[in-house]
From TrEMBL:
GO terms for cellular component: cytoplasm. Pathway: Cofactor biosynthesis; (R)-pantothenate biosynthesis; (R)-pantoate from 3-methyl-2-oxobutanoate: step 1/2. This is 3-methyl-2-oxobutanoate hydroxymethyltransferase. One of its GO terms (biological process) is pantothenate biosynthetic process. HAMAP family: PanB.
């Protein structure tokens, strides 16, 4: 049985940045509702990402592209309402920041007003102006490079990036440039997704902001996973993820036992009845 942290201090943006020097690894996990936000916070995560993966794991859509700013604002608000010690990261969805830096600032303000403490957006070199504009109005930004799910059609699927050399999108040298551009533009942390371990290690050594990996090996300054993968709620198991529980099976077992009890009349009995 693990000991859960009690009354831990609020995790702030400067505290996350300091981890680069102290070497204490950063743990980030997604959550989209109050129940799970409370649980993951009690378990001691450093950062809660209200991710646009909400599209796949909550809304039942195929990829992150249909998720809108109003959806993200709603989920940010219900997570932030739990007042977690963990830092709340609001994910900017597809179409809410790509049009112009001004659009990105306006969308970031929407998420911050609903309780986000920083925002995350996808893209490297070509998003530098946008990251700069958001940072200029004192909204802290988490960058996200590598396998960027909002670029699913350009990548031809959710495919590992940085395996081939080159400066074109997804090329190894380009990803190194992307990381430096994101840092120079003012991001305080960088998610690296779906790249070879050695590249993530090189990027982590090159930038002075913490890197947070997903499918990027153990050498990043922290890790992030989707909550449903950690809990084993998804039918699909990914190579890069680790299921620490098999809640899918437990939910199936519990719900089918309930159905059987109702059908047979075993439950509710007199002890579950009011008199
Ligand atoms: O939306 C999300 O869950 C993410 C993670 C995969 C990093 O962006």
């Amino acid at each position: 049985m693990s000991t859960l942290p009690t009354n831990r201090p609020k995790i702030t943006v400067p505290a996350i940045m300091r981890r680069k020097q102290t070497g204490e690894k950063i743990s980030m996990i997604t959550a989209y509702d109050a129940t799970f936000a409370r649980l993951v916070d009690e378990a001691g995560v450093d950062m809660i990402l209200v991710g646009d993966s909400v599209g796949m794991v909550v809304q039942g859509v195929e990829n992150t592209l249909p998720v809108g700013l109003a959806d993200m604002a709603y989920h940010v608000e219900i997570v932030a309402r739990t007042r977690p010690s963990a830092l709340v990261v609001g994910d900017l969805p597809f179409g809410s920041y790509q049009v112009s830096p001004q659009q990105a600032v306006e969308s970031s303000i929407v998420l911050m007003k609903r309780g986000a403490e920083c925002v995350k957006l996808e893209g490297g070199t070509h998003m530098a102006d946008t990251i700069e504009a958001i940072s200029r109005v004192d909204i802290p930004v988490v960058g996200h490079i590598g396998l960027t799910p909002q670029s699913v059609h350009r990548m031809g699927g959710h495919k590992v990036q940085g395996r081939s050399a080159g400066y074109e999108a997804g090329g190894r040298e380009r990803l190194l440039d992307d990381a430096v551009a994101v840092e120079r533009a003012g991001a305080f942390a960088l998610v690296i997704e779906g790249v070879p371990r050695d590249l993530a290690k090189e990027i982590t050594a090159k930038v002075s902001i913490p890197t947070i990996g997903i499918g990027a090996g153990p050498d990043c300054d922290g890790q992030v996973l989707v909550l449903h993968d950690v809990l084993g709620l998804s039918a699909h198991r990914y190579k890069f993820a680790k299921a620490y529980a098999d809640l899918r099976q437990q939910v199936l077992d519990a719900t089918s036992a309930y159905v059987a009890d109702v059908q047979s009349g075993v439950w509710p009995d007199d002890t579950h009845s009011f008199h």
